[in-house]
Amino acid sequence: MAYLAHLTEDREQTVKEHLMGTAKLAAEFAGQFGCSDWGYCCGMLHDIGKYSEAFQSHLRNKDNKKVDHSTAGAQVCEEIGGAYRYMEACIAGHHAGLPDYGGTGSMSDEASLHGRLLKHIEDFSPYKSEIEIPKVETAPFDPCCVKDSGFSLSVFIRMIFSCLVDADYLDTEKFMTAGQVDRDSGESIDLLYDKLMDHISGWLSCYDDKTINGRRSEILRSCLDKANTQRGLFRLTVPTGGGKTMASLSFALRHAKENHMNRVIYVIPYTGIIEQNAKVFKEKLGEENVLEDHYNADYKTSEELTSMYRASENWDKPVVVTTNVQFFESLFSNKPSKCRKLHNIANSVIVFDEAQMLPTDYLKPCIYMMEELIRTYRASIVLCTATQPALQQFFSPDMEAVELCPRMEDQFDFFKRTEFDDDGFITEEELVTRLNKENQALCIVNTRKRAQSLYNKVDSDGSYHLSTCMYPEHRRRALDEIRMRLKEGKRCVVISTSLVEAGVDLDFETVYRQLAGVDSILQAAGRCNREGKRALADSRVRIFRFRDDERIPGQMQQIETTSVLLKEGIDISLQEGVKDYFTRLYKLIDRTLDKKEILDKFHKYPYFEFSSAAGDFKLIEQNTYTVFVAKTEEAKSLLCRMKNQEFSKSLMRKAGQYCVQVHENILNQLYNSGKAEQLSAEIQDLYVLLDETWYTEKVGLKMDDISGIPVFL
User: Fold this and answer.
1) Smaller CB count within 10 Å for the chain: N or C?
2) Are strands 683-689 and 419-426 parallel, antiparallel or unpaired?
3) Contact criterion met (CB below 8 Å) for 268 and 322
4) Contact status, residue 22 vs residue 43, Cβ threshold 8 Å
5) Helices 149-176, 36-45: inter-axial angle, 10-degree rounding
6) 707 by DSSP, 3-state: which?
7) What confidence tens digit (pLDDT) does each residue in 454-486 have?
8) Got the DSSP string for 52-102?
9) Cα separation of the two ends of the chain
10) Annotated domain spans of the chain
11) What is the three-state SS of 594-615?
């Protein structure tokens, strides 16, 4: 009898064929970090449980009886012992996910790795007549060169797991589709670099450092020159207007070309910035070479984008643009679907745009992971921002970041567009009086409720409100009007939350900023005299505090650190001031830089907690609810379709343009007062607003009568 792994109406794939196909692919993937033998061995052992009579009967007879075929290979590894034990979690979890090791007693949880190793399973011994257990000879990593050997081993296991699950999926896909699969890895890094050089070559000849273009060219040339170095840690600290996006892309592509690296990965905190950058990259490099992987990217619903959707599963494109959430949560995940891409992070240039936005609650595990990618997985990392956080203290002493920006302090002096004023404490009424005298001004406050309160008090002529109380499509319309008034020189006073601080191209004469973290204040300053057309003395950023300042959970340390710096007379617009701010802040919040104690879950082998860590590592805590607002004809049409139980990803993406995120206390008030109802039991956190008077064209969802905790953004 032939032992089968997969079966269709007209074709069969034997277990041996599937094991060999998977092993060869996994070996190729693991070869990117020098461990092809591990990938090959994992591939050869992952499905040996399919040699049991029970599995063969299940496959051939198409019965519903579940047969555990994943535990067998793990038990063989345990029997062999030694380094083979490092593959146990990969093999046992190649369908359900990497498990926690669990307890050590005879009654250990069956879902844990220890429980799986003790589990009685169907006899699979016929594998011995067809499969020879491959040797594993390479070391997972050099123990003398890593930060924490336990953590390094956990990353290695996760990387081998990635190689295995991607190879398993691809080999199965090839069989099930008879090889008729549409996959396109895009063009080579060398070709993309040539395309970019064709675009920027004219810029490089400008050497007039008294002009903006000359300064941008100087920064660009420096990035290209320093790209011809070995892999490592880099910083690109460029002021607003300095051409950061093209400079970082130029460095990344040349660095990848010179070091024979496979791809460039851009990691960005905001979806809005992702879409802007991806658009630029696609224009220069071709749409087929740039993959966007974030919530708003929708490839699955279009037949024309099937190839791109498949690439999104494992990041098989030369340029990938993604979010902090997607990047780090995947690296700490235990699920096959999220981990498939991890091996393609190896041998890549990784650019962290707006690096100051790295999540502070998980900063230490993120830094550990970044250092591991550099040391063991042949990656280079670029920390790219105008407000460089003081991260060097968290890297090992021998990993010193190389600055790519030439004459950095001089560049910031040249691109300086504003002067800062510390206005101290004021009342809302005093602020309103000032704003009513302004021609074109932006005022940014810390909560949505405060933004609405201020907006309702300023003169209505030429005034606008912006916050996430307005659904995205509403904000887009408001921004279009704001840009038009600014361009035409008309009066335009905008009351906003911090959502305008990044990814929104606006240029005001004056910016008012409620006291916040230094990085937020400097981001706000980037909306003042952005084009540099006004005199420095006439372009003011005014920092203020309300006399009745509310407490902002999660932001109090940032606010107080900035307050101390201002009291000491430190110039927060200078790079030394920025460094001082982050150094003090990180010292103040040191205990919460690994809030969920992720690193503790990987200190001691074999007691790793892959599943628990994945559950705890959530950059965005799920404590908000979605309220759909059906005020436009398109929104009403979408609502009708959702009420008819249509919940495709494409439809939900469109519906997201008419949604407002609210905290639980606000949702409860809307729901209990009959102003909102749950849309469907299918999606429990989705509600629809019933009382449209609670949503206005001016401010969106009204907050003035809703009590409770402050609401951000």
Assistant:
1) N
2) unpaired
3) yes
4) yes
5) 60
6) coil
7) 999 999 999 999 999 999 999 999 999 999 999
8) SHHHHHHHHHT-S-----SHHHHHHHHHH-GGGGGGHHHHHTTTT-PPB--
9) 64
10) 4-176, 192-412, 417-570, 624-701
11) CCCCCHHHHCCCCCCEHHHHHH
Asked, colleague to colleague, whether 192-412 and 417-570 share their fold, the answer is yes
Specify the pairing of strand 683-689 against strand 676-680.
antiparallel
Is residue 553 within a helix (H) or strand (E), and if so which, with residue range? none
User: For 684, phi and psi rounded to 5 degrees?
Assistant: -70, -20
Q: Which of 290, 337, 343, 286 is nearest to 95 (CA)?
A: 337
Peptide bond into 606 cis (omega under 30): yes
Sequence letter at residue 569 = G
Report how far residue 27's alpha carbon sits from residue 41's, in angstroms, rounded to the nearest whole number. 8
CB distance 550 to 447 below 8 Å: yes
> 192-412, what's its fold?
Rossmann fold (3.40.50)
How many residues appear in the chain?
713
502 to 277, 347, 350: CA distances (angstroms): 12, 30, 20
pTM for the full predicted model: 0.93
* DSSP code of residue 549: P
The class (CATH top level) of 417-570 is alpha beta
- Summarised one tens digit per residue, pLDDT across range 520-572 is 999 999 999 988 889 999 999 999 999 887 788 788 999 999 999 999 999 99
Residue 574: name the closest of 352, 406, 415 by CA. 415
Q: Are 168 and 258 in contact (CB under 8 A)?
A: no
